[in-house]
Every structure is written in C-alpha cells, then in structure tokens.
Design brief:
The chain is α/β, with parallel strands linked by helices and 294 residues long. It is built from 10 helices and 10 strands. The strands form 4 sheets. Strands 5-8-9-10 form a 4-stranded parallel beta sheet, sandwiched between helices. The protein is globular. The protein starts with a helix and ends with a helix.
Length: 294
C-alpha cells in the first residue's frame, strides 16, 4: 500500500460516520457525525478494486481472495463432479489468488495462460464496446502451449458487461483449447453501484435479466459457475470475524443507505446515457473538424 511504502504505521481505521481533521500544526481532531453508525464495507473492493496487499477494516484483501477460491472450488466440486478440467488458468491479475487456491483445492494443475500488457487500463470502465473489445486483445496475449488440446477452466474475479469474458473465451479457443469453462469468484453483477464505482447501467450488465445458462451462452463458454453471495461474504468475514455486514448492492440490489429507489436508478442511468451520447457527438465533431482542417 502507498502508506506502507512511505514508512507510515497504522494507528487505527476511521470509524463509520467519523470525520477526521488534521490542522496545519499537526493537531488531530476527530468527531462522530452520524447517529448509530454501522460498518458495511463495500464487498466489491475485496473482489476486484483493491490491491491484493491492501488491508481494509482489518481484513487482508489477499486472504479474502484465497478464501474466495476455496469456496468456489467447493461449489465446482458439488455442481460439476464429473467436470473434465485439465488446467486452471487465471485472468490476470486480480483473480490470480482465487484461481491458485481453487486449483490447489481441486487438485488440478495451475498455469499462467495469459500475459498481461500493463499499459492497458481496466476495460470494464472504458467507454464504448468496440474500445473495450479492442483493449482486451491488446491487454492480454495467450500462451498457446497452455491451451492447446486442453479443457481449461478460466477464473476471473467477476463478470460485469461480459465483453471481456467473451473475448477471453474466444482467445482461449483460438489458442487451441478443446473446451473452455468459466468461473467467477463473485456472484452475478445485476445492479449498478451508486456509491462511487463507475459501474454500467442495468441494461449494460450481462447478468441483468439473464440466467446463468443464458450468460454462459452469451460469453461462448462450455460451462459457467458463479460464486454464491453468502459464500463471498463468508470468504471476507473469515479474515476478520468482527465484520459481518457488507454493502453488496451490485449483487443483490440492496442499497445500504435505504434511499435508492428504482426511479432514482432510472434517472442516473438516463443521465449517464445522455452523457455518453454527448461524448460520442463531441468525438464525431472533433473527427469532422480534423478532416476539414487537415
């Protein structure tokens, strides 16, 4: 973490509803600004957003991702007892701990089948499907020998739009895989996040209105398994038993503040779509100006 590398030491976590102020003289001020606050950390931080070496509310992100892999392996063992998986391959980088622990628990070889280009950003927040599709191919390159004539299980931290997953499945097939199974360390993302994550609208989320079988067909996989939400929560709580409640609205639609209505979601999604349309128009006008002005 940034503070660790600079030599700072952790004193304590800021409490829910607490405001902290440090003045120019270095004096520390703290005040509780909410009545009856409760701790409900965003569970998607542990799934994907946070660095693996982060510790959030006393919970090691790396440890939670190992736990996610164990729980996902147990579900695969229950639901796919006859699965003919030759190798487990992670989608780098955030899914690597989960994939490694999953492979160990199932007794299946773990291999690095994709090499990542670190100069390409996170694709699920990129504007425009064509840009996301192109970026996936630029971001990852398959190691063909790890796919050729094998039944592979690809493990990713989550599936948001499905664009990335679809491209990766096709890359595995192009590299020679016989069968391509897909496992998500997180449950289906069916709802937008309104608390800070730039997450797509409901109609852009591949899981909204689709069953697991339909999603599997959409991404072109031979099989698909998702982590259960209770198992995800257990994976995080296992790292710190004092934390039992989470903000998991992108999975279950339960917005912790209690003031998010369907009408509000419709409104912000309409604003988002209008904003994207304006950006597209701006880009088109820029291209036109360039063409006219040389």
């Amino acid at each position: 973490m940034a503070l660790d590398t600079l030599g700072f030491k952790l004193l304590r976590d800021i409490a829910p509803g607490e405001a902290v102020f440090i003045d120019f003289d270095g004096n520390f001020h703290s005040q509780q600004c909410a009545k009856n606050p409760t701790l409900n950390p965003c569970i998607f931080e542990y799934v994907y957003l946070a660095r693996p070496d982060s510790v959030i509310d006393g919970i090691s992100v790396y440890e939670t991702r190992l736990n996610m892999g164990e729980n996902l392996a147990d579900k695969i063992a229950r639901t796919w007892p006859q699965a003919d998986i030759d190798v487990v391959i992670p989608i780098p980088d955030s899914s690597r701990p989960s994939a490694l622990q999953l492979a160990n628990r199932l007794g299946i070889p773990f291999r690095e089948g994709f090499v990542k280009n670190r100069y390409i950003g996170r694709t699920f927040i990129m504007p425009g499907q064509e840009m996301r599709k192109k970026s996936v191919r630029q971001k990852l390159n398959a190691v063909n020998v790890e796919f050729r004539n094998k039944n592979v299980l690809l493990v990713d931290d989550s599936i948001v739009r499905g664009t990335t997953s679809r491209e990766i499945v096709q890359m595995a097939r192009d590299a020679g895989a016989r069968k391509v199974y897909f496992a998500s360390a997180a449950p289906p993302v069916r709802f937008p996040n309104v608390y800070g994550i730039d997450m797509p609208s409901r109609r852009e989320l591949i899981a909204t209105g689709r069953s697991d079988e339909e999603i599997c067909c959409e991404i072109g996989a031979d099989g698909l398994v998702y982590q259960d939400l209770d198992s995800l929560k257990a994976a995080v709580s296992k790292a710190n038993q004092k934390v039992q409640h989470f903000e998991a609205s992108c999975f279950n639609g339960d917005y912790i503040t209690g003031d998010i209505t369907p009408e509000y979601l419709d409104e912000i999604e309409a604003e988002r779509e209008n904003g994207n349309a304006n950006k597209t128009d701006d880009v088109g006008q820029m291209d036109l100006n360039l063409a006219i002005n040389g």
